Structure formats: C-alpha cells, structure tokens
Amino acid sequence: MLKSNIKHSNSEHIERVRWKKSGDKTGPVLVLFVGIHGNEPAGLKAIDRIADILNEKETEFGGTVYAITGNIRALELGVRFLDTDLNRLWEVFYTDKDFSLKKNGKQQPSEYGESLEIKRTVDQIIKKHIDQPGDLIFADLHTTSSQSCAFILLNDTLANRKLSRKFPVPHILGIEENIEGTLLSYINNLGYKAVGFEAGAHLDDVSVERSEAFLWLLFYNTGILEISDLKLRKVRKTLEAHPGVPDSYYQVKYHKLVDDPEKFEMISGFENFDVVKKDTPLAYEHGELIRAPISGRIFMPLYQNVGHDGFMIIREVSEFWLELSAILRKSPFHGLLKFLPGVKKINSRSYEVDLRIARFLVRDIFHLMGYRVTEKDENTLICYRR
C-alpha cells in the first residue's frame, strides 16, 4: 500500500498537498502532480522517497515545491479512474460546459469533485505566489500501459521547449491536439510552463527510479536544489532512452481513436518508439485487423481495456524546423496570417481555416507559428495561438 501524507479533517476536507518544502522566497515555485490516474503509483512512490530524504536533513532550497495528489479514490482502488478520466476534463472550465458552475442537484462523476479540489489548490498556490519574482512551473508525472523508455510530453511553446530540452529523453510536441482536456493544457492556458513526464510501464520498479531521477534533475534544472556532479551524472544516466531512440523532438502524425476499448486489442510486443513500417499489423478492432497507415514510430499503444487512444504514430522533427519556428514565433508574421486564402481571424489569438479553400500545408504553417490546430468539422480548422 502506498504511504500517504494526505490528511482528512473532521469536516472531511481533503488536503491535496501531499508534500511541501519551502526555501528562497524569490526563487521558482514548482508544482508537481502525482497520481492523476489511479493505476499509476510510480510518481507517488518517487515523491515520497524524495520527501523522506529531504525532510531528514537540512537542505537549502532555492525555491518552493508542492506535490499535489491526483485521483485519491482511484489510487485507493488501483484503477485508472472511477467514472471518467480525470486527465480529460480540464478544457471545460470557463466554457458553457463548466460543471463547476452547475447546481442542478444531479449526481456527478466522482472525478468532477476531484478536479475541483485540485483546481482550488492550484488557484490557492498561484494566488499565494503570483507577486513573487520567481517562475511558476508545473510538472505532471505519469506512466504508460506498455513498456517504454522515459519521455516528456509538452504543449509546443518556446518556454516549454526550453525547459524540456534540459532532460536527456525524447520530447513529444503538441500532444494536446490529439488528447483533449489534459491538466497540462489547462495550466498552459493559464500562461505557465508545464511538462508531462512519462516514466515507463505502470508497475515497473524502473518507473519509480526514473520518476525520482526526473524530480532530482527538475529540482536542479529549475535552480531549486544543487546536486553533486556524481548524482547529476547518475540521474541523467537513469533517464537516458534506449539505444536507437534519439532524445530529440517528435510530432504525432497519426492517432488511432477507439470507440469501445473492450473491442480493441493491441497486438502484443510493441513498445513506445518501436519503428513500424506502413501496413505493419498493429491491432484488432471488432475482430478486424488494423495496419499502420504510415511509417514512423509507435507511440502509447493501448494495453489496457480503458481509454480511447488506441495508438499513435510519431515522427522526428528536424532541428531546422524547430529553429525556424522559434524565429517565426517572435516575428511580426502573425499579422499576415489573416491574408492567407481561406483564413479568417476570430480574435487576437485565433483563426478559422476553411479547408475547401486552404488545402496545402495548413497545419504545418500554423504549427510553425506556435498555434494549436483542432478540427471544428471536416471542412474547418480552429487555430489557437499557444
């Protein structure tokens, strides 16, 4: 059973902050999320181990760290979620679907309550530190249903790139275009740096070791904690990807969505970042064989009977493309996008694109400029500036 620092008062208020350590008030504030999915205990074990080490000795902290527990009830049961995925709810806040504003008396999924408590905790932390000079930085720790090296997920902003590049792991750009409602997207939309760390398979001991290594290196990279050269080499070695998996940037090129996870079966043996050729047999859905529609690397193959993301295929992004995008995002070219064929400006940060007119390189152009591209319908894209 996982050790927990969660406290329950007589009023049954749940204290979401699993661990906190403060130091220099002018330094950065780091907020960690662990256990957003209840079948992913590695992040909790890692933060508990580090808390034990740092609580036992006087350590000079260059900032403040909070660790927030995710889906508490699901963690107790060891399941991904009870009613709905806690990491798919976060884009409804401040929209007409915002369940936090509804008082209709209907029974809501348990994860709604969990998300509201997490949101309140995040709001309190931001309010407390908003006027301090240090950066507010967020990180969300996860594991996967398949075997995998460690990797980082990030919404493609220059600030997120700068942070993630300090880790010797593969980096997956723009995951929010394929998986909606994530906590990371919510944090990014608030204007803060946020990265997701995936340590490996759910119950592997190495996933705990990688989560610890990520946290030590995150403390070091953000200036919160100095560590020795020996420990620095050790944690970087723990995080290094398998041979044949470059620690560069990747982009999702294909996303297989699953209507009924009970009717989907991934063919065994695929691990994250395995190279697959076009037409490689990958899975069965309703008894029919699913083949790879393009060549690339397999990403997040579904080996559990929950969730609707069957698998993705990713490809490496060239350094030239990354450098060009960094230049263009700082340029005045944004003001010219509205003059492109089929492009209509919605407001200062978003555009609507008619694919019947704008047929070529639409996603590539808007990605270069730092926009998130989503489908409104089969003929229309909405592009939001991240």
Polypeptide structure, described:
It is a single chain. With 386 residues, this protein is an alpha/beta fold. It has three domains: 17-239, Aminopeptidase; 249-316, OB fold (Dihydrolipoamide Acetyltransferase, E2P); 321-385. The chain is 26% helix and 26% strand. The protein contains nine helices and 18 strands. It has helices spanning 42-55, 72-77, 110-129, 158-164, 183-190, 205-221, 229-239, 319-329, 362-368; strands spanning 17-21, 29-34, 64-69, 136-144, 151-154, 171-173, 193-201, 249-257, 264-266, 275-276, 281-285, 288-291, 296-299, 309-316, 343-347, 350-354, 371-377, 380-385. It has an eleven-stranded mixed β-sheet, with helices on both faces. A hairpin with a 2-residue loop joins strand 11 and strand 12. It is globular, with a radius of gyration of 21 Å. The relative contact order is 0.11. Residues 1-14 have low confidence and may be disordered.
